[in-house]
């Protein structure tokens, strides 16, 4: 009885921290969902929708960095590849739109899991270059195989009147599509947070820290790393499907390595050590790019300066700095 008495106060103290992320995420989800309606600006709704879709891609890149310690220059392959899979399946009427949507997410995920057993045998710069090479192979495929993907002209995504019983206009109107994308992003962040707290999440972090030690104590390390790579690819593919549904068109630019590079910059600026950091970085990147682009054609200089400042002054990114600040305020000694 006395032992229970000793434990209860500790649990009472830990519970608020355990639920801190879901509670904060719920507040952010609600505030974000109300933002377009409060602002009443169609342009803002469009920017938020596009920024949220890119944030899903950046979250996928950040997840791979956090759980596997690997930097990918090729996630645009899964993002743009999913968009192309959806467009081609609908253009050639291979399957129903619902099956096409599911396949556009599942196929890149399975593909990443399988090639992960080869690519994850190398680390560091070698892995990054390998992802770049594979992604550029995909880019060249859609660029040069005109009879399949129409080359640089791209292809339209011929969505039917309804998808999963929802009128297609809902997916192509900025205000309603933002709510869909925003809700999916929040669910992805919650899922990754739960995964990070699970045994699997702890194991993959341990493997990242010292793979040889994990093998020595009896854990298989390649499969968990491949699963992390596949989950990351699946999230990127989910973003690609939303991109295709919203824009109704897909071009080779969506597969190009520069798209992967932008997502990586977003993840670094936001901070990959937190689940939500890459998404924050994507939103900041997107709106800074839009604002700077309306002033000068040399907007990449602003992004470059921001990247240098964050890398030097905030090694854990803006998200990491905000997390540290929050722990100092709410967690006392943990700051």
UniProtKB/TrEMBL annotation:
Pfam families according to UniProt: BPD_transp_2 (PF02653)
Superkingdom per UniProt: Bacteria
Location(s), subcellular: Cell membrane
Database matches in CDD domains: TM_PBP1_LivM_like
InterPro entries: ABC_transp_permease, LivM-like
Membrane topology: Multi-pass membrane protein
GO molecular function ontology, one term from the record: branched-chain amino acid transmembrane transporter activity
The UniProt record lists the keyword Nuclease: no
Regions crossing the membrane: 20-38, 45-65, 71-90, 97-119, 125-142, 154-171, 177-195, 226-246, 266-287, 299-318
Keywords, ordered alphabetically: Cell membrane, Membrane, Transmembrane, Transmembrane helix
GO cellular component: plasma membrane
Protein name: Branched-chain amino acid ABC transporter permease
Organism: Zavarzinia compransoris
Upper classification of the organism: Bacteria, Pseudomonadati, Pseudomonadota, Alphaproteobacteria, Rhodospirillales
């Amino acid at each position: 009885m006395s032992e229970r008495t000793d434990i209860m106060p500790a649990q009472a103290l830990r519970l608020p921290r355990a639920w801190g992320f879901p509670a904060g995420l719920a507040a952010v989800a609600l505030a974000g969902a109300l933002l377009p309606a409060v602002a009443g600006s169609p342009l803002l709704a469009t920017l938020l929708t596009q920024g949220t879709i890119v944030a899903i891609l950046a979250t996928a890149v950040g997840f791979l960095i956090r759980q596997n310690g690997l930097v990918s220059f090729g996630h645009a392959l899964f993002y743009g590849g999913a968009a192309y899979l959806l467009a081609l399946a609908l253009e050639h009427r291979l399957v129903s739109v619902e099956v096409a949507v599911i396949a556009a997410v599942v196929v890149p995920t399975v593909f990443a899991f399988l090639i992960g057993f080869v690519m994850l045998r190398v680390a560091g710069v070698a892995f990054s270059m390998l992802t770049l090479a594979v992604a550029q192979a995909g880019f060249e495929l859609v660029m040069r195989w005109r009879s399949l993907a129409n080359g640089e002209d791209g292809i339209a995504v011929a969505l039917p009147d309804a998808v999963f019983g929802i009128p297609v206009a809902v997916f192509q109107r900025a205000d309603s599509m933002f709510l869909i994308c925003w809700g999916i992003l929040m669910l992805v962040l919650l899922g990754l947070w739960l995964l990070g707290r699970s045994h699997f999440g702890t194991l993959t972090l341990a493997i990242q820290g010292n793979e040889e030690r994990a093998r020595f104590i009896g854990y298989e390390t390649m499969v968990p790393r491949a699963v992390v790579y596949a989950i990351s690819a699946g999230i990127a593919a989910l973003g690609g499907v939303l991109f295709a549904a919203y824009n109704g068109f897909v071009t080779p630019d969506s597969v190009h390595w520069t798209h992967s590079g932008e997502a990586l910059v977003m993840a670094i600026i936001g901070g990959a050590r937190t689940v939500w950091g890459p998404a924050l970085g994507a939103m900041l990147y997107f709106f800074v790019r839009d604002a700077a682009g309306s002033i000068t054609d040399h907007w990449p200089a602003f992004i470059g300066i921001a990247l240098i400042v964050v890398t030097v002054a905030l090694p854990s990114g803006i998200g990491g700095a905000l997390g540290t600040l929050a722990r100092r305020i709410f967690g006392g000694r943990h700051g």
